[in-house]
Amino acid sequence: MIDLRDAPALGLALGGGGTLGGAHIGVLQVLQERGITPAYIAGTSSGALVGAAYAMGIDPHRLEELLLGIRWTDVARVPRRPGAGLLDAEALRASVTGLIGGDVAIEDMPMPFVAVATDLASRTARVFDRGSLIDALRASISVPGVFRPVRIDGRRLADGGLIANVPLQAALDMGASPVIAVRVAPEWDVPGYSSAAALRALEARPDVLAIAPNLRGRQWWQTKDLDRVVEAGRAATEAALEE
C-alpha cells in the first residue's frame, strides 16, 4: 500500500450496518489525525449518511457529537398510516436533513460523493452522483421491511446493502485508487442480489485497504454505548495503518 498521505485519488468506501455505521466516524477521525484526506467518498446505507456528512465538511469529531446527541425515539417513530413501513420515513427524512444541515445537489458538494441504493426491479445498483442528496440518502438507507421503498424517476429503490453493502466498485468507478474499504457488517447475500464473493475479490486488490472494526456482539439497531462503536472504528484504523 502506498503512502496514503500522498494519494491524490484516495477513495473511501463506507459500508452499511445500521448504527454500526458509527464506526465510520472513528475511521474518519484517525485519518484526519494522520493527515490522510480522501478525494472521493462512496457510501451505502449508514455509510452513505456518515460519508455525506463528511463530504459536506462536517468535522469527524463534531460528527461523533451529533451521533451521540440523536434522539433515536424520533428517528424510529412508528408511522400513523397503515402500510407505510415499520418505521416513519418522514421522521427519518427530518433526522437526516438535520444531520446534513439541509438538502443540496450532490454534484455541488465540496467533495465528490456517491450514495448507493438498490433498484428493486432490475436488481442492480443505483449510484447517485447528482440530484437531491436527501433523496439519495433516503433511498440508500431504506431497509426492506423497515421503510417503504423510495420512488425516484419512476423506479422503486431500497437499501443499497442488498446489492453492495460495501460500495467498493462505486468508489473505483469514481476514479479512486487506492481505496479504503470499511466493512461494519457482513454482506447481505440475498439470492439474486449481492455477492460476498465478488466483494472479497475486490478487497484483495493491491490498491485496496480493507478495514473491519471489531463489532461482534452488537446489533444493527442497538443505540446504547455508541461511543464504543466509534472507538472500534478508531482502533481498527490505527491497526490497519500500522501494518
UniProtKB/TrEMBL annotation:
Active site (catalytic residues): S45 (nucleophile), D159 (proton acceptor)
> At which positions is motif DGA/G?
159-161
Task: Write the record's keywords in alphabetical order, separated by commas.
Answer: Hydrolase, Lipid degradation, Lipid metabolism
Show where the record puts the motif GXGXXG: 16-21
Q: What are the recorded GO MF terms, alphabetically? A: hydrolase activity
What residue intervals hold the motif GXSXG? Answer: 43-47
PROSITE patterns under this entry? PNPLA
InterPro entries per UniProt: Acyl_Trfase/lysoPLipase, NTE, PNPLA_dom
Specify the domain of life of the species encoding this protein: Bacteria
Give the protein's recorded name: Patatin-like phospholipase family protein
Lineage, top ranks: Bacteria, Bacillati, Actinomycetota, Actinomycetes, Micrococcales
